[in-house]
Amino acid sequence: MNKHIIFVFIIVFLGACSSTRNYAPVKSYQRDLVPGAKYYTVVKGDTLYSIGFRSNFGYQKLSKWNKISAPYVLHIGQKIKLFKPRLSSKAKKQVKSTQKTFYKKRNSSQKKQNQSKKKRYTSQKTSTNSIDKKKVLKLFWQWPIQKRILKTFTQTGYKGIDISGKVGQKVKSASSGKVVYSGSALKGYGNLLIIKHNYLYLSAYANNRRLLVKEGQWVKKGQVIAEVGLIGGKKASLHFEIRKNGKPVNPLNYLPK
Q: pTM to 2 decimals?
């Protein structure tokens, strides 16, 4: 009899342990940049794009300041400068020497005139190209979801817009590009996707219920990339950002009306 009771107790105990393991809470790690910090230490899951996104400096500046070239490989524990390094005295001398050499080659008036003409031509060409690029880029985007705006660019603190939606609604890529971040480690963004469209522009899709694409994956304009989730567990909406050179810009200036 005693043996039977002990056997039943063991079975119940093991069942309880099994249940505990199945329902153990899973904590997702999150990180944020300390305001005013000069350095950031790389942890698992970081990319130069995600650090540039969170710091508002953009990956271009960080790659230059830290001398990290494409494909921007980072290592856990690596310290990333969040400031523009000053030139050493040796580097300054080299710059001055280069400048002197450059100006010596421009002694003749003929060369100055030729360069002046070239500058005017280049300036006009650059100005025209800039206007053309702006026109193209405005046609380049599409809405990630079609719904009313809950929060404007100013209402979000100049960090994109919030668009209302339905839980599980399909989120589409606003333009073609490469997924450079897919995860939930950036504080305040939930399940986040960042897509690089060209050397200048990134787009971000935050607070998703589910992410459907992975880092390194190429996506087409209009491709389904995620599903709408809840912001703060209350409203079903998508937080959408467009970044130019790392800085948030008003998406309404780029999205079709």
A: 0.68
